[in-house]
Amino acid sequence: CLTSRLIPAARAVPYSNMAAALVQYVVLRGDLARPPHSWPLGAVVAQGCHAALAAVHGYREHPDTGAYLEQGDAMTTVVLEAPDENSLLDLGKLLKEKGIDHKMWTENPEGMATCLALRPYPRALVQPHLRHLRLLK
């Protein structure tokens, strides 16, 4: 397995049975797929992929990230919707205030925030901060 070569086994499982509860939350702007933006589905999905990968890479040394990657095909990702750029930026500020590790993805050269991804966390630790968001549809 590729991840077993990248993540030392001693770091891979920080919580014993809590590893199964690890989840990566990705929050995409819902307005990007609707007018006036009307981005193609693939472009919106790419924003989520960029943010998720950047968060995993940025926090690759964290034990939760290693444990999450060790789950392989059992990894859980939840994709939520922020209504617009301001709500996404507000969420980023809230998460920073609460000490929740995340990566805000900004589309350049426009400098437009499009997506936010948390590093993998135990669901119970971050869900209260995201409860107000709905699943992306």
TrEMBL record:
One of its GO terms (molecular function) is peptidyl-tRNA hydrolase activity. Its EC number is 3.1.1.29. Keywords: Hydrolase. It is an enzyme of class 3 (hydrolase). Pfam families: PTH2. It catalyses: an N-acyl-L-alpha-aminoacyl-tRNA + H2O = an N-acyl-L-amino acid + a tRNA + H(+). This is peptidyl-tRNA hydrolase.
